[in-house]
Structure formats: structure tokens, C-alpha cells
């Protein structure tokens, strides 16, 4: 950790394969930049071998990612990471990304400890090291009521199956958090691809993901999604991934309709609003 306010700094380089069809860095790849910055800070704090464990493993319980500006290929991304809070059974990490002098994104990750696939308290040595650098400047996170909501929905308007891949495993042979973030993206895309945008575009503004477990499996994963709120120029997708081990992840994603020429938010036209109403849960 940097001696200056216990903030860790590093540089990350977007790759050509991180680009989406809009020719900017895809939102799931932005998520992975935050993950990498968080992991680099973890290694700086706990040592170069701290990226793996065969006993207690640290994984996110929840992450809230705000996509503040578009991130582009060809320029380095500067990252800074702080540990905001630490308790007996979780801690919270904030990462901020900057590109070309612009603050392009923020993520708050609530981290917990797992042993043999079950939640446990943080190891004492881990907690003590984190407490030594904690900033204690975090605001309360909103209640993740969408997790309960997906459990109550009997019929989602969009349901699709996804076959797990070897690449969905992390270095500890668990379902990776990056894979689960991509699952949430795919759940949204299953609905978005059928929308007639009438020349408008859609960008993701924020994504709030709760991780219920990281158990791997090879049976098809059910992705379910629907819309729970429609505003003037934005709407909110609620989605989830259900595996053979039950509900694995759930998410709320705020999507913004934009004018493609200006890149600015645009009011949702009546034709599009009617389509969105058909996707409500």
C-alpha cells in the first residue's frame, strides 16, 4: 500500500479484445479492471503468493460498479484502491479508475471469507492487516432487495440457458466472479437484443451484483431477467443466474438510453417504452 493515506496505485492496459461492438471497453471488461486493481492491491498488502489459497478464500459478497465515463482502447488506465471498512466477517474495498485525466469508474466490493464453500469469519491475521490500513470513510450501501425479488418472481419475461465453460473457472477451480459478472451481462443482452431502439443507443450506468456462492458445475445455468423500473431516460434490469446449486448471483443494472450523435441521455420514446413495459416483472 502507498504510504500516502494507505491508497494503492497501479496502471492497467485495456486490450483490443476488451472492446465491444461500440468500440469502447466492454462493461464486463471494466469490471475485470476493477478486479485486477483490487487483486494487485491485495498482493501488495499480503505478499506475491496471496493470489491463491487452498484453505480460506476471499471472494466478493457484493459489488457495485459505477460506469462514469466511456473507457477507450489505446490509453492506460490508472487505478487506486482503498480498504474502507473491516469487521469480523467482511471488509469493503473501493477502487477508482482514471483514463486521460478523467474519472471513468468506481467500484465498491464487499468481501468475505469462504472455506470449503461456506462463509466463515476473516482469518485473524488477515483482519488485523486490513484494520491497520482501513480508511473508515464509507457510506452505507443500499439494501440489496433485488436478491429477494428474484426469489419471488414466478415468471421472468426473458429466460435463457448458458453452458458453463472451462474459462468460467478461476485459479482455485471455483466459478469466477468475472464469469458471474458476464452471466449478468448475458442475461441483460438476451432482452436488449430484441429491442427496436429506433437509432438510439443504450449504455450501462451501474451494476449491483450479489454473489450467493462460487460453486462450479457443468450443468446448464439458467439466466433470467426482466425490468423492474422505467424512468424518463433510464430503466433497471433485474437478473439472476441459477445453477445446479441454486441461486448463484443476482443483479440490478441501470441502463441509460442515449443519443448516439451526442452521447447524452435521451428521453425514452413511446415505442421503446411500450417494448420495455412488455419486459416488466
Automatic annotation (TrEMBL):
Assigned keywords, A-Z: Hydrolase
Keyword Lyase attached: no
Keyword Hydrolase part of the UniProt annotation: yes
Protein's recorded name: Acyl-CoA thioesterase FadM
Pfam families tied to this protein: 4HBT_2
Annotated Gene3D superfamilies: Hotdog Thioesterase (3.10.129.10)
Assigned protein family: Belongs to the 4-hydroxybenzoyl-CoA thioesterase family.
InterPro entries: 4-hydroxybenzoyl-CoA_TE (IPR050563), HotDog_dom_sf (IPR029069)
Annotated source species: Halopseudomonas salina
Amino acid at each position: 500500500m502507498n504510504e500516502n493515506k494507505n491508497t494503492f496505485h497501479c496502471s492497467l492496459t485495456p486490450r483490443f479484445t476488451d472492446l465491444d461492438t461500440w468500440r469502447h471497453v466492454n462493461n464486463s471488461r471494466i469490471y475485470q479492471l476493477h478486479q485486477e486493481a483490487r487483486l494487485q492491491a491485495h498482493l501488495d498488502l499480503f505478499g506475491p503468493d496471496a493470489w491463491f489459497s487452498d484453505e480460506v478464500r476471499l471472494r466478493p459478497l457484493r459489488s457495485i460498479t459505477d460506469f462514469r465515463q466511456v473507457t477507450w482502447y489505446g490509453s492506460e488506465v490508472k487505478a487506486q484502491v482503498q480498504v474502507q471498512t473491516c469487521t469480523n466477517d467482511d471488509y469493503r474495498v473501493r477502487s477508482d479508475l482514471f483514463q486521460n485525466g478523467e474519472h471513468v469508474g468506481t467500484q465498491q466490493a464487499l468481501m468475505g471469507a469462504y472455506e470449503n464453500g461456506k462463509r466463515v469469519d476473516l482469518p485473524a491475521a488477515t483482519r488485523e492487516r486490513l484494520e491497520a490500513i482501513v480508511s473508515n470513510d464509507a457510506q452505507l450501501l443500499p439494501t440489496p432487495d433485488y436478491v429477494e425479488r428474484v426469489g419471488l418472481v414466478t415468471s421472468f419475461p426473458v429466460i435463457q440457458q448458458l453452458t458453463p465453460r472451462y474459462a468460467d473457472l478461476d485459479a482455485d477451480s471455483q466459478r469466477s466472479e468475472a464469469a458471474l459478472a458476464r452471466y449478468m451481462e448475458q442475461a441483460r443482452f438476451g432482452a436488449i437484443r430484441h429491442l427496436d431502439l429506433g437509432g438510439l443507443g443504450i449504455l450501462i450506468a451501474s451494476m449491483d451484483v450479489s454473489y450467493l456462492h462460487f460453486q462450479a458445475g457443468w450443468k446448464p445455468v439458467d439466466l433470467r431477467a426482466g425490468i423492474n423500473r422505467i424512468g424518463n431516460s433510464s430503466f433497471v434490469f433485474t437478473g439472476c443466474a441459477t445453477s445446479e446449486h441454486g441461486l448463484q448471483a443476482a443483479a440490478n443494472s441501470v441502463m441509460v438510453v442515449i443519443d448516439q450523435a451526442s452521447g447524452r441521455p435521451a428521453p425514452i420514446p413511446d415505442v421503446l417504452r411500450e417494448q420495455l413495459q412488455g419486459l416488466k416483472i
